[in-house]
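Hi support team,

I submitted a single chain yesterday and got back a structure, but I'm not sure I'm reading the token output correctly. Could someone confirm the output below corresponds to the sequence I sent? I've pasted both exactly as they appear in my results page.

Thanks,
R.
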Amino acid sequence: MVAERMTRYNRDRDLGALWPGLRPAALAAAQVEIEGVVRAVLAGDKPRPLAADTEAAAYALKIACFTTGTGALLGYWTANAIVETSPRVGALLAHELEQGRKRAARIEREVGPAFDALIARDITPVVLKGFHAARTCYSEPGVRPVADVDVLVPPERVRDAETALRDAGFIPTTPPHVDPRRHYKRHWRAAHVDPRHFSVEGIDARSPWELDLHVSFDRAFPGGIARLDRLAGHCDEWVVAGRRLMVPVHPLLLLVLACHTSDGLKSIRLMRLIDIVQVIRLDSIAAALDWDAVLRAFHDSRTARFTYPALALAEDLAPGTVDARVLAAARSASSPMARRVVSRLRPGGMSAGRTSFAMALMWARGPVAMLHVLVLHAAREIALGPRSLGTTLRMIAHRMLTGALSLGAPDERRQ
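Hi R., thanks for writing in. Yes, this is the structure output for that exact sequence:
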């Protein structure tokens, strides 16, 4: 049933296939409500209670927890009397927290053999993004959902790393992705992990997870590359479950998170912005974050424009978090289209089911690059399966009439 719903949504981009009975307006309203709660907690204020008077409202809130990635975190805040809820919502959030805790423990247990196999071959992996953030930015790992464990190894050791993963019982789920823009990247899954997804409505401890093997910090955008490898020396030792691993430290850490969030604005955006706010605040207190070093890193890695959406939305969510000079530099380096797109987004929004060409084009520079991005984006988002030209054109017309497809960015602040 879940697989069928995912297939239909991937084919038609119909939210009704993914979440039957959900009204987009109700989802948007629930996302705004959750964003308001997060804003208040981050500001040290008492948020208004989370409530849902009807089954439809509770369902919309449940899906909003899933799309923003905040269900388990809200459950933790509720359990610790930081957020008040109605009984119906409290039960929903308690379930999300329980599943988040079970899933975090399961992933840590199942990824252990992969770490051990890499270390046994004298490869110390660098752990990136969610798995690291969950264990450093929050009171417990289970409040931050993770679908992948991102691991980076030296490019000259990638074949050894693949052998180590196979020895640990992992199998590749994709061919190696290698090109001059994205270097090598490959997804791996433990052979015993059930590949089925058990829910598209919330955290489910049983759903699969993958290990993403990287050899580069660089991140390719539709209109350029964030040259993060130029900051590769900014890594330090990190111990998790008794294993000595490596993780990025500032300024690389902040730029990795910001580029990742900017490039994935449709996926658990609010949770990723909370990551950025938390890592800035915690490391500012510890004097580990030097904003002058961030400005120098912008220059060295040419990443300022790629960080702008994430840093601007993080500052929107928690005013006073991002250094004004850094935010101004990122904004100045971004394109006019990027600035317009960001001005229409909310930290807690998602624009589910909507395709915006502007969100792809905002990275491109020059008409040739924009045309290239437009063609690639259209091919990926519209021609999702073999169709006749007439069927494709009718689908495009329908999506444009319903607002699911637009040239401009969806205005989440008016939804």
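A quick pointer for reading it: Residues 271 and 292 are 26 Å apart (CA to CA). Let us know if anything else looks off.

Best,
Support desk
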